[in-house]
Design brief:
This is Coenzyme A biosynthesis bifunctional protein CoaBC. Helix content is 34%, strand content 23%. By secondary structure, the chain is an alpha/beta fold. The longest helix has 14 residues, at 382-395. It binds cytidine-5'-triphosphate.
């Protein structure tokens, strides 16, 4: 939730990943940020300022000694105007300059003069990135409160393999958005979220699982992060990308999830169990692959842990939120779960509709509160559901 239009000053430095900065800017524009680009001289050798001007819809700043408009001194005015400064891609050179107090062009002076948060998204050759000097510079900047979006590993433009590839542009844009979020009502709070399906193995190659994508839980984790919480996401086998700034623990079975949740439960302020946990597992796991034999194969199942029920029994000060996936009698069934599992809130979810629920982008839910309120919500994105949920929790 970002109220007014915020300004992001994007510093572009010279590396082969410069073209990716265009995509970051296009994503930030879609998120309704005002963009002011500063390009270094070498960045402008990779991609012309005109491309950045077209996408940012603003004049690109590059010449430190350009005629200042009226009383404004360019680097000071950009530094003041910025709600956030993002350097993408950030070369070893700009990192080294800032870490050592060198301000000799428009970008380095702006970074030095701003009071806004600064994010570096480095991209460089893997040997350069792992060079002890670069690492020490990064370490120093982190210590002074600068933020880094770590590069990914992979095949680099120079042909080398390793760390140094610019982080993916979607994650960079999301990280910027999260830092500029207005509502920081979960600051200082610890939030644990579970997401995705669990699996129960039948034999070494087969398992039972369900259709959960993990999207609802991941959206909750991202919303909590953006509102300032320290978030731990315990995720079943989801294909979704780990959200930046969230600690993710991957699990596969009901038992794994229970163990990880219990390990962290006492410290938490809010626990949201959005995972679709398997209720049953095969009674007997076969170490050998089950061979095809008779026409019928009977698989005997036995009940597995109800994780949320256990959390309800152990609950002290934590706010406990469950989900109820129902195909009929939505409110009655959800109400029963709220009581049986000793929850504070339950998000009741009708899974019969094809364009909401399990694997879809949207959801249509009713939030039931312990105090007896039932709050039906319109169909909305999972992120908006997450927002409403924390709005309701924070009202108290
Ligand atoms: N849950 C859990 N452990 C289970 C089953 C469910 O922790 N073994 C949690 C889910 O994460 C969710 C809530 O309990 O927050 C309700 O899950 P749901 O599947 O709707 O209900 P169940 O309790 O499994 O009951 P039923 O399947 O009979 O509807």
């Amino acid at each position: 939730m970002i109220k007014e239009k915020k300004t992001v000053v994007v510093g572009v430095t010279g590396g082969i990943a410069v073209y990716k900065a265009l995509d970051v800017i296009s994503r930030l524009k879609k998120k309704n940020f005002e963009i002011n680009v500063i390009m270094t001289e070498s960045a402008a050798k990779f991609v012309t300022p005109l491309s950045f001007q077209s996408l940012s819809q603003n004049i690109v700043n590059s010449d430190m000694f350009a005629e200042p408009r009226a009383w404004e001194i360019q680097h000071i005015s950009l530094a003041k105007k910025a709600d956030l400064v993002l350097i993408v891609p950030a070369t070893a050179n700009i990192i080294g300059k800032v870490a050592n107090g060198i301000a000799d062009d428009l970008l380095s002076t702006t970074i030095m003069a701003t009071k806004a948060p600064v994010i570096f998204a480095p991209a460089m050759n893997t040997n350069m990135y792992s060079n002890a000097i670069v690492q020490e510079n990064i370490h120093k900047l982190v210590k002074f409160g600068y933020n880094f979006i770590n590069p990914a590993s992979g095949r680099l433009a120079c042909g080398d393999e390793g760390e140094g590839k610019l982080a993916d542009t979607e994650s960079i844009a999301e990280y910027v958005e999260s830092m500029l979020y207005d509502k920081k009502d979960l600051k200082g709070k610890k939030v644990l979220v579970t997401a995705g399906p669990t699996i129960a193995a039948i034999d070494p190659v087969r398992f039972i699982t369900n259709r959960s994508s993990g999207r609802m839980g991941y959206a909750i984790a991202e919303e909590a992060r953006d509102r300032g919480a320290e978030v731990l996401l315990i995720s079943g086998t989801s294909k979704l990308k780990a959200p930046l700034g969230v600690k993710v623990v991957n699990v596969s079975t009901n038992e794994d999830m229970l163990r990880e949740v219990l390990k962290h439960y006492v410290d938490q302020d809010i626990v949201v169990k959005a995972a679709a946990v398997a209720d049953y597992k095969p009674k007997q796991y076969s170490d050998k692959k089950i061979k095809k034999a008779n026409d019928d194969l009977n698989l005997e199942l036995t009940k597995d842990n109800d994780i949320l029920k256990k959390l309800g029994e152990l609950k002290k000060e934590q706010i406990l939120v469950g989900f109820a996936a129902e195909s009929n009698d939505l409110i009655d069934n959800a109400q029963k779960k709220l009581e049986n599992k000793n929850l504070d809130y339950i998000v009741a979810n009708d899974i019969t509709s094809s364009d909401t629920g399990f694997a879809s982008e949207d959801n249509k839910v009713t939030i039931l509160c312990r105090d007896g309120r039932n709050l039906p919500l319109e169909k909305m994105s999972k992120r908006q559901v997450a927002r409403k949920l924390f709005d309701i929790i924070s009202e108290k």
